[in-house]
TrEMBL record, chain A:
Its main location: mitochondrion. It is a single-pass membrane protein. GO terms for biological process: mitochondrial electron transport, ubiquinol to cytochrome c; mitochondrial respiratory chain complex III assembly. GO terms for molecular function: quinol-cytochrome-c reductase activity. Component of the ubiquinol-cytochrome c oxidoreductase, a multisubunit transmembrane complex that is part of the mitochondrial electron transport chain which drives oxidative phosphorylation. The complex plays an important role in the uptake of multiple carbon sources present in different host niches. InterPro entries: QCR9, QCR9_sf. Transmembrane segments: none annotated. It comes from Kazachstania africana (strain ATCC 22294 / BCRC 22015 / CBS 2517 / CECT 1963 / NBRC 1671 / NRRL Y-8276) (Yeast). It comes from the Eukaryota. This is Complex III subunit 9. Component of the ubiquinol-cytochrome c oxidoreductase (cytochrome b-c1 complex, complex III, CIII), a multisubunit enzyme composed of 3 respiratory subunits cytochrome b, cytochrome c1 and Rieske protein, 2 core protein subunits, and additional low-molecular weight protein subunits.
UniProtKB/TrEMBL annotation, chain B:
One of its GO terms (cellular component) is respiratory chain complex III. The chain crosses the membrane at residues 32-53. The gene is KAFR0D03540. The keyword DNA damage does not apply. Keywords: Membrane, Transmembrane, Transmembrane helix. One of its GO terms (biological process) is mitochondrial electron transport, ubiquinol to cytochrome c. This is Cytochrome b-c1 complex subunit 10. It comes from the Eukaryota. InterPro entries: Cytochrome_b-c1_su10_fun. One of its GO terms (molecular function) is quinol-cytochrome-c reductase activity. The lineage of its organism: Eukaryota, Fungi, Dikarya, Ascomycota, Saccharomycotina.
From TrEMBL, chain C:
It is an enzyme of class 7 (translocase). This is Cytochrome b-c1 complex subunit Rieske, mitochondrial. GO terms for cellular component: mitochondrial inner membrane; respiratory chain complex III. Its cofactor is [2Fe-2S] cluster. Belongs to the Rieske iron-sulfur protein family. The Rieske protein is a high potential 2Fe-2S protein.
Length: 66, 79, 220
């Protein structure tokens, strides 16, 4: 795809330009969110509730919180 | 004073500045539709974290919608 | 052409008279070089593009503008969302948002007070006589007219917030002139449907959201 095609498809009409920006912002948000979450969970492995839960005996049944 | 009436009078079609019904439909509508789509996506950007929209729209996106599905195991859920 | 240009004193020559002297000297000279322009046209040959297509630099610029737009809209959204979500209830509040009551333990004609979100909730198991009494009240005699059917889901059970609508005291059950509740602070009397009948309170006792789940009552 030549540069002229890219220009004509994405940038020439302002509505398409703005739409593309919003669409990629929408995609970017969730990708960024899951990326950061993945990194955070990797960084704090072993300290998170889902890891700690497995080490508590009898946590599977009848959990009582006070 | 005589009054002359003729059938050939000039009339101005309804318009708003440069806009009239004809060019609104034939020239502007594709662009207006694209703007509509762009603003819809713009709204989606801003309501991305809203559970109502997540459940009704975002979770139904194929493959990509998995991101909004949060599963809390029953023993961890409140109530 | 050049000479006429030189003869007119330019602003530069006014400032620097020496320039005028030089040019007038040059005017006297008969050298043929003066007939030609002494300006040299710079050669831009080495920076001119082969194919004169500006779309490449153009999409670079637009891409940068678009990326800025992308990041700002995502950032604006996240900022707004942070402020708005700070107003919503946190998980510990949500955990306390509902309370369950076992209705089988409440005999007919008894009051039970439970705490829900820090507020008392009155639960009354009404007798058929009391239900009749609540339904037979003349609407025009009420300060805040509301039929009993609007205040209960199941006429046997009256569930309402135990906060006096006057200044927020907790009324006392099974007392007052109308057989319902009586607020000791300023003397508001509520009837068996929790409606204000006498005293300073402006409206009926509030009804919380609740639902019946078999023998259980879930408030909230």
């Amino acid at each position: 795809m030549s540069f002229s095609t890219v220009y004509k498809v994405f940038f020439k009409r302002n509505s398409v330009f703005v739409g593309t920006i919003f669409l990629s912002a929408f995609v970017f948000q969730s990708v960024f969110d899951s990326g950061v979450t993945k990194w955070f969970e990797h960084h704090n492995k072993g300290k998170l509730w889902k890891d700690v839960k497995l080490q508590i005996p009898g946590a599977e049944e009848g959990e009582e919180e006070d | 004073m005589m009054q002359y009436n003729t059938h050939f009078g000039s009339k101005v079609s309804p318009h708003l500045g440069r806009l009239n019904f004809k060019n609104l439909f034939f020239n502007y509508s594709p662009n207006l539709m694209l703007w509509g789509g762009a603003s819809l996506v713009g709204v989606f950007v801003f309501v991305e974290g809203w559970p109502l929209f997540q459940q009704n729209f975002f979770q139904k996106i194929p493959y990509f919608g998995e991101h909004w599905k949060k599963e809390i195991p029953p023993e961890d859920s409140i109530n | 052409m050049l000479t006429t240009f030189i003869k007119q004193p330019t602003s530069l020559q006014k400032v620097f008279p020496v320039l005028t002297r030089c040019t007038s000297l040059a005017h006297l000279s008969t050298s043929t070089r003066l007939g030609k322009s002494t300006y040299r046209t710079p050669d831009f040959g080495n920076v001119i593009k082969e194919e004169r297509n500006s779309d490449k630099s153009r999409i670079y610029t637009y891409f940068m503008v678009g990326s800025l737009g992308l990041l700002s809209s995502a950032g604006a959204k996240s900022t707004v969302e942070t402020f708005i979500s700070s107003m919503s209830a946190s998980a510990d509040v949500l955990a306390m948002a509902k309370v369950e009551v076992n209705l089988a333990a409440i005999p007919e004609g008894k009051n039970v007070v439970v705490k829900w979100q820090g507020k008392p909730v009155f639960i009354r198991h009404r007798t058929p006589h009391e239900i009749n009494e609540a339904n037979s009240v003349d609407m025009t005699s009420l300060k805040d007219p509301q039929p009993d059917s609007d205040r209960v889901q199941n006429p046997e059970w009256l569930i309402m917030l135990g906060i006096c609508t006057h200044l927020g005291c907790v009324p006392i059950g099974e007392s007052g002139d109308f057989g319902g509740w009586f607020c000791p602070c300023h003397g508001s009397h509520y009837d068996i449907s929790g409606r204000i009948r006498k005293g300073p309170a402006p409206s009926n006792l509030e009804i919380p959201q609740y639902e019946f789940d078999g023998d259980k009552l879930v408030v909230g």
